[in-house]
Amino acid sequence: MGSPKTRSKTRPPTRRLAAAxxxxxxxxxxxxxxxxxxxxxxxxxxxxxxxxxxxxIRQTITSLTRHIDMPLFDILLGGGVVALATWWGxxxxxxxGDRLRALASLVGVTTVLAAGLxxxxxxxxxxNYRRESLAxxxxxxxxxxxxxxxxxxxxxxxxHLNRAYDQSEHATWPQLSExxxxxxxxxxxxxxxLKVSPVVTGLVPQRSQLTPYFRRAGIDGMVDPFFLQVLxxxxxxxxxxxxxTAHEWAHVAGFAHEAEANFxxxxxxxxxxxxxxxAGWSFLVPRLVAASPADTQADLWARVRPGPLAxxxxxxxxxxxxxxxxxxxxxxxxxxxxxxxxxxSGIASYGEVVQMAVGTELGLAQWSEPPGxx
Length: 374
What we know:
67% of the residues lie in helices and 2% in strands. The protein is mainly α and 374 residues long.
């Protein structure tokens, strides 16, 4: 007689726990879907997340991961894929005659895991995509971005490029491990101009196990959005390293939009020594020339001296070793990723740095800067 009473007493708590667990799972997926599709006011994201919450998250994560000399994203990606595939295989193998039910359970749990991973991504870094535009905060004016103005600035940029090349021609380029010391102070100065507080110090770029894929896809680098480590393609040429590194540092500082990260990287390089300035101008000059009127581009290229032209040819040769099908798929995937994160122009956003460099007062001020920066 005692057994039935004991079971009746234990069942309700078990059911309540199961219902609570189900509620948590449904709530997690619902929250992820809501944040994925419902718009949030950019002013709210800027004031609450970008200016208050993210700096605390960034400092906490980087204070730990900067001392780890291995790319944690590789472990997360590789270990996660292996663990998930193994779990699916074992569950389906054990299910035998009831595989449909097991499959439904696996899909449900995997959906919950994906929702949790997405929410973690948003918290640790991804919400920066939804902050206010840097161009707006810098009083961007579209009226400044005219063909004649872009052409004039392209000509001026070429002069800066040639001068920086002459000054750095015989200099030794820093290794990846040396960049925090050689470029880090310039990055901190650039952040102060942009009112980033607290400023982010330079992080040592890591060599990822994804490097073979980076080479074939034409990817120069990425920031790990979970552990905020910088991963670089070590095929990037020595004079490209400062800009590529500064671009990824800008992402860590909270500038998720590609044009903004390019703009911050350009500002950073111009705050450095002659080598860093050459890296900054060698990035911007081809984009300014491409944005100039078509009938003036040949004349502009004719003003570039042989040294920088040889470097541009070396970049083209490096990128020619990509595998077209891999590169196309990588670009397509990146475009979808950016659009899913509220970047309407997708991968075209990389080129919008020209508008920021030409259409903002801070950008225009760089053309009048004397050698050596501020």
